[in-house]
Amino acid sequence: xxxNIALLAGDGIGPEVIDQAVKVSDAVAAKFGHEINxxxxxxxxxxxxxxxxxxxxxxHDICKSSDAVLFGAIGHPKFDNDPSAKVRPExxxxxxxxxxxxxxxxxxTFTFPSLLDKSPLKKERIEGTDLVFLRELTGxxxxxxxxxxxxxxxxxxxxxxxxxxxQRLAKKGFELAMTRGKKLCCVDKANVLETSxxxxxxxxxxxxxxxxxxxxxxxxxxxxMRLVQWPNSYDVLITENLFGDILTDEASxxxxxxxxxxxxxxxxxxxxxxxxxxxxxxAAGKNIANPMATxxxxxxxxxxxGLQDEGKAIRDVVxxxxxxxxxxxxxxxxxxxxxxxxxxxxxxxxx
Length: 351
Ligand SMILES: NC(=O)c1ccc[n+]([C@@H]2O[C@H](COP(=O)([O-])OP(=O)(O)OC[C@H]3O[C@@H](n4cnc5c(N)ncnc54)[C@H](O)[C@@H]3O)[C@@H](O)[C@H]2O)c1
Ligand SMILES: CC(C)[C@H](C(=O)O)[C@@H](O)C(=O)O
Ligand SMILES: [Mg+2]
What we know:
The chain has two domains: about 1-105 and about 265-350, 3-Layer(aba) Sandwich (Isopropylmalate Dehydrogenase); about 120-255, Isopropylmalate Dehydrogenase (3-Layer(aba) Sandwich), CATH 3.40.718.10. The protein has 13 helices and twelve strands. The protein has helices at about 15-30, 45-50, 55-65, 75-80, 90-100, 125, 165-180, 195-205, 220-230, 240-255, 290-305, 310-325, 340-350; strands spanning about 1-10, 35-40, 70-75, 105-110, 130-135, 145-150, 155, 185-190, 215-220, 235-240, 265, 270-275. A ten-stranded mixed sheet has the order 2-1-3-12-11-4-5-10-8-9, sandwiched between helices. The protein has a two-stranded antiparallel ribbon with strand order 6-7. The two termini are about 20 Å apart. The relative contact order is 0.17. The model has no long low-confidence stretch (mean pLDDT about 95). Its cofactor is Mg(2+); Mn(2+). Belongs to the isocitrate and isopropylmalate dehydrogenases family. LeuB type 1 subfamily.
């Protein structure tokens, strides 16, 4: 297969982790007889510095003309520490998600056998965890009207959802549940929020189309607790944009590190594959960031093309690295650790 992949490295550790995902993907392509044409493009603070905006038209054109997008991370402290900045790296990510129609962000959480004993959570609680969040990605409070009034003394962010937006996300959730454990949890705050009541009502109306799926409705605050209390009781969780953002960072504690959490952002057209973590500015340029989240995002990319064996080859080599202690410092637990690029080289060499 010939694949054109837009490569958006971004900021901070983005370029470092992307380099490793490219090495590993190229090794997989060589092994299975594929050809990848990488098409680098600017995004985030790097794009603001270069051309004044975080998701330039040229980058959008490159994404649109590719088969998929592999994304690193964006964000820079000079913007994080300046609330008055009008142009921000994060706007680029949001604009890109909207422009590419990426309404469903698939964020899996699973445990790795060799890391079970290292988790701050008890082994018997997390063992066997295999759940997936479907985070709605192009609506809700992220995209509602926002602003200031009363001479800047009052701020507002509106949360808006349409029934159609909930339906298309929930449909993906039901379909995914049918291929897995046939359990779906709708995470909302329907005891307080009108948008959540629309979510609940919409999902309830869809239940009859999927009689085999056991559906539960849980409030987001309780899920925040149960997620770390009994993570292996969940299968597929669907939720709105902000709740999904927060709960998936929390879920990284179950797997063992933010540096292990991949994701796929999907719509009806091209897919974007990105770690859930950010640009981790404290680690930028130090060769210490864990590249596995980005490498596993590349595995999701291959699988989304229907290339299951290629995806499995990546998952197997990541497991092998974890078993053999070929890990960055976030997973070293005081033991030996390796650099970002050493881990990437090792993964590529062992494909
Ligand atoms: N998708 C994205 O591009 C994305 C996601 C989240 C945050 N951000 C941006 O990133 C910047 C930093 O945000 P933050 O510090 O809240 O979140 P972050 O995800 O960058 O880092 C939070 C913590 O997670 C750990 N971590 C993250 N990535 C890791 C990796 N690859 N290996 C090992 N440990 C890792 C580190 O302990 C780090 O301190 C901000 O500008 C924010 O807006 C971007
Ligand atoms: C950087 C930010 C806009 C982004 C989000 O909130 O979606 C990030 O936290 C993520 O999880 O991808
Ligand atoms: Mg986030």
